[in-house]
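Note to self: user wants both folds in one dump. Writing first protein now.
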Amino acid sequence: MDFAGRIGVVTGASRGIGKEIALQLARHGADVALTSRRQEGVDLAAAEIEALGVRARAYACDVSVREDVDALAAGVVEDLGMPDFLVNNAGIVIDKLLLRMKPEDWESVIATNLTGVYNTTKAFAPHFLRKREGRIVNISSVIGITGNAGQASYAASKAGVVGFTKSLAQEFATRGITVNAVAPGYVATVMTDGLDAETKAKLLSMIPMGRFGKVEDVANVVIFLLSNMADYVTGQVINCDGGMVMR
């Protein structure tokens, strides 16, 4: 778990799961590039990481925009060097029943959650291929496995991430690059904090462990997949959901 001298890129890292992944990378000695659509939030996260004694750089980047991602990749290489890790965490949710879902709602979720993963992977993969080593971890969701009423766009995007992960793992397996996904369940965030007591109780009844996940729970799995302990793990989807989905 010693990442000293390594460089990680984490998208959607201004808060929540992405920020915790970036912090844990830094605690293990890695330099970190953080992205978010808004510069202010990611600047604050980068300052917190630099206080741990590593280099951190913050970039405003909309992963759904190819030009933004190309500029990000060039900036990371110039500012920090060729990266070793890529964690595709950026994502959005627009929950609506299908008959109320506007085309732009669908397109926005797919563009960020799925095309965004394509964009960042496409931009950074050549650096991994050049070095013949690298780790890519994509954040999916248990909703991409089970589906959920009112979340067709989110479920489709996260299921797409699973298929993308498995395909890229096969493409890169002989090049020293692993590609895996983590599928979180319900994680305690600002979103779950706003749920009423009845909704929380209903969700908790679906989780065998009887609690919401913590951002640290998800980050711990990601860090394992980035480490040398996961050298022989690729093309896998690891649920981090308290037992909610057992396959």
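First done. Writing the second protein, which came from a different request thread.
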Amino acid sequence: MKYRPLYIAATGQHMGKTTVALGLVRYLQDRGIDAGFMKPVGQSYVVIDGEKVDEDAVLIHETFHYTERMKMMSPIAVERGFTETHIFARDSHLLRKQVEDAHRQLSADKEAMIIEGTGHAGVGSCFGLSNADVAQVLGCKALVVSGGGIGRPIDEIALSASLFGTRGVPTLGAVLNKVLPDKLEKVQRVVAAGLNNMGMRLLGVAPYIDRLTHPTLTQLVQHLGLEVLSAGEGLATRAKHNIVAAMEPEHMTRYLTDHTLVITPGDRTDNIEVCLASHQSEGPPQLAGFVLTGGLVPPPAMMEHLARSGLPVLLSQDDTYTVSSRIRELVFKIEATDLDKIQAAQEMVCSHVDVDYILQSL
């Protein structure tokens, strides 16, 4: 049985490595190939049973119902102070052994392994485990994921492939992700030619899918530390847009659309009333809910009105500007409970990435 490991690298953070991993593992399993997964070095982790495990490893573990211990799929978690400690300790051999041991156990009975990197190709160099180093240690071929555009992704893909090349790791090609749909055809044509000029292959151009970025209200509660004043009909609702409702009511309603999250000081009962009236009228917009700011809770009569609406009502102690800024800056990764996002990601990869070529090249 030929063992086929593939290292999914990227030109930076949040390019879509995990999205590609979700699609590739599903593709392999659908074809009867027993495929495993690991993320050797993780920067964003959660603590499970006292062990630090990368969030992406948790997602893949739960999505595909792996039975292996989660920590094995995520042997190294870069916590605060980790880099400084290992720069002075100079124990990269110990870290490599941890990665090799985990990989050996995970791959023992697997036909293929999808191995997800972290950040750009050079991340981890400071403690002797860059993405290129890990790919070399594990005997992988690499796939580079980049964002949309033309010149910049070509340049950054070339840089990544160059670093992998210094470690003797072949790069199968590149995938561009989050490309604006109306630019898809042009980007495909020009970037394919640009990479071909450098002897590289473009293996896919995936469109930007807006709904993959929409958080549930539960995720907002968790990320922002919000208090739930009323769960309404549930916190699984996704917020597709948000509006700061601090202007006069007659000017505000034009910005309300379906699944809008209304962010407003808790004492702006005039705006709350107008939003509720709009939500309860026939047809759109149907709102996602409210975040009341400044730690201000509306009077009891208004809270009763909000409860009857069925809309979730969340409370923040921060001011309106801070709340809206934090929401805008947050990046919501796909979680195991995001079944709709997982399916969309998998369908996108199988539709827009040359998965057959990748499999044949491993």
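Dump finished. Worth passing along: The chain has a mean pLDDT of 91.
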